[in-house]
Design a protein that fits this description.
Chain A has 233 residues and is α/β, with parallel strands linked by helices. Chain A has 11 helices and 9 strands. In chain A, strands 5-4-3-2-1-9-8-7-6 form a 9-stranded parallel beta sheet. The two termini of chain A are 14 Å apart. In chain B, helix 2 runs antiparallel to helix 4. The chains are: A alpha/beta (233), B alpha/beta (386). The complex binds pyridoxal-5'-phosphate.
Chain lengths: 233, 386
Amino acid sequence: MCRLGIYLVCNYPDREGFLRAVELCNRYGVDFLEIGLPFSDPTADGDVIEKASMEVLKRYRMADFLDSTKQARRIFNGRLYIMTYANIVFSYGIDRFAGDFGFIDGLILADVPYRESNRFKKPLSKKGIGFVYFATPESRQEELERLKRDANDFIYFVSIRGTTGGEFRLDDETKRKIEFLKGAKHKVILGFGIRNKQDIENACRYADGVVIGTAAVEAMRGDFETFLLSLRG
Amino acid sequence: MKGYYGQYGGQFVAETLIPALDELEEAFKAFKKNKAAKEELNRYLKDYAGRPTPLYLAKNLSNQLNINIYLKREDLLHSGAHKINNTLGQIILAKFMGKKRIIAETGAGQHGVATATAAALMGLECVIYMGEKDAERQRPNLLRMKLLGAEVRIVKKGSRTLKSAINEALRDWVKNIRTTHYLIGSVVGPYPFPQIVAYFQSVIGREARKQILSKQKSLPDAVIACVGGGSNAIGIFSGFLKDKTVKLYGVEAGGEGLELGKHSAALTKGRPGIMHGALSYLLQDDDGQVSLVHSISAGLDYPGVGPVHSFLKDSGRVKYGVCFDDEALEAFKMLSQLEGIIPALESSHALGYLIKNKEDFARKTVIVNLSGRGDKDLPILEGIYV
Ligand SMILES: Cc1ncc(COP(=O)(O)O)c(C=O)c1O
């Protein structure tokens, strides 16, 4: 069973639209959600997600994001993750964040690599929030081994060298790395560049699941329901 | 912990970049032990860039202010600023690593020009990211980069200044990690960049210390430098850090005033935060969103600062203050007219701080790091003086 995850920018295009999308994701059996909390300097994101984040930041503040994420938790039955950048959590206070967002399943920080993760991981795990590690096509064997040992429920495999929204492809070396990580207690989820049913089928030959970001954020401006239906055959 | 200055620094980047940072750290270690590479760098610094730069006793200015003022003349270097020390060093390092492509960000354009210069010299492909706002206000440097054969990519997103240019350079790097060296322009970014840039800029302080001792047989009372990211400042400070009698001053851009958004004084008004790969003082709002900032000088117009300066601030070894736009302009005019030296607007901040606090420095011996020359700033000044 290949898991399907959807990434949504919190409160994009607005609070109502965002919550409606969460509801649709729940209705159509999306396995997990990643909610992106916008940051002013999203260096891991491509144009689409960056633009969406900037629009949202003009109208909403952190308190609104907390509120909407809580609401999303009530609506959505699958696992729920937050994806954002280190400073959003650091500035909020890591302990305070772990307390206020205690209802999420995991946290994904685009600019926190394995070796900087401890200061975040410890306070979060006290509240039962997992810290999600990244693997990449650049990861070396000893790093893969450590990940396989230390990961929580989810290893985020960044499929491409680049930002969100790039083109999806897997080279042989990358396929081998995904293969190596699989088979432990966690799921290996592929992200970055996956847009449609065909990409999903391709990715799921190797990974335990996928997450769709840019294409989902684009679809928020059009017919999101049709987009969701198009992902499953 | 590795890569930290006290609690500041680190490697807050996409996991994809970690192996590249490790590779860079290894290469840098090897470089420091490699006699041939260091000799090559020293030869270029001397015969190509124009080192050592003079330490000049500015008599007219000294008389006017009743302070014994020496200027460390980094403005006399090839391409117009201290930035060339770092770009020559890193380009030789990049060649050492077998990289074929160089990317860089630039604010004032000085780092872009220095990178394009070094890349041209070594025959490497070069792409420079520059914010749209900076491209407008530093036009001469835009033209110079192009003439030197670099591709300049104008960044029309975000603040359209240095901060946005760094974001784009980081995005490029993560895509082209195997072929490309990111030649970062100040003591900012993830470890080992702050270390590498400080190492290549330490030549300023080493020379200045020797020169002042030979000229007046004693150490100075104070050393003053402007701080954007902080590379020229750490370069000159490093020569005096251990000399406890020498007071060190870092000057940030106070812009139009100390309200959030009107200045870029990260150490003076910021709080610790994480941006561009490091934990350091950062100008941000209550939610952790990075603030927009302002300075009349493009090279200081940055919401963050190198982690080593955050550490030096907390430890009290360096005192950090501000100089406002109008005070920098006043200093700019004063040096031009009293000494016949047109300083960069960045460097004018260091001078402006000295001038406004002249009572505190009365009869003292002070070295001001004149990090660059002001030719690049003529489009800004045109609007003010002509
Ligand atoms: C002449 C000059 N001085 C100073 C700076 C600020 O950089 P840093 O703080 O790294 O020395 C710049 C940056 O562009 C510059 O061009």
